[in-house]
Design goal:
0% of the residues lie in helices and 50% in strands. It has no helices and eleven strands. The chain is globular, with a radius of gyration of 13 Å.
């Protein structure tokens, strides 16, 4: 079992930055692919970013590439999502995810992700 707790969401203006954090506990954290997904009102949950268990490989949705950066600190059982140049279209609840499968496939696995956090709200005003 893996328990995930997100933090760092909030209300910001377009162009601002936010850093989301996800604290993981339970099953050996270092063996998990970790990722971020988001869900806007009335829309399906979508992939944002993923990081391999070593932290050496990452993947991003095209909509956030170049603006968001995912990272992990295995010593602290933490992952982060640095979000820069935020846009109103980034407004959503952001969810931390953990899975044992390859990070590169996470974008296609939203319906079968093993573990989810409770989510943190990010609101970007124009």
């Amino acid at each position: 079992q893996v328990h995930l707790v997100e933090s760092g969401g909030g209300l910001v203006q377009a162009g601002d930055s936010l850093r989301l954090s996800c604290a993981a506990s339970g099953r050996a954290f270092t063996w998990n692919t970790m990722g971020w997904f988001r869900q806007a009102p009335g829309k399906e949950r979508e992939f944002v970013s993923a990081v391999s268990w070593t932290g050496g490989s990452t993947a991003y949705a095209d909509s956030v590439k170049g603006r968001f950066t995912i990272s992990r600190d295995n010593a602290k059982n933490m992952i982060y999502l640095q979000m820069n140049s935020l846009k109103p279209g980034d407004t959503a609840v952001y969810y931390c995810a953990a899975d044992h499968r390859n990070y590169a496939s996470l974008r296609d696995l939203v319906s079968t992700i093993e573990y989810w956090g409770q989510g943190t709200q990010v609101t970007v005003s124009s």
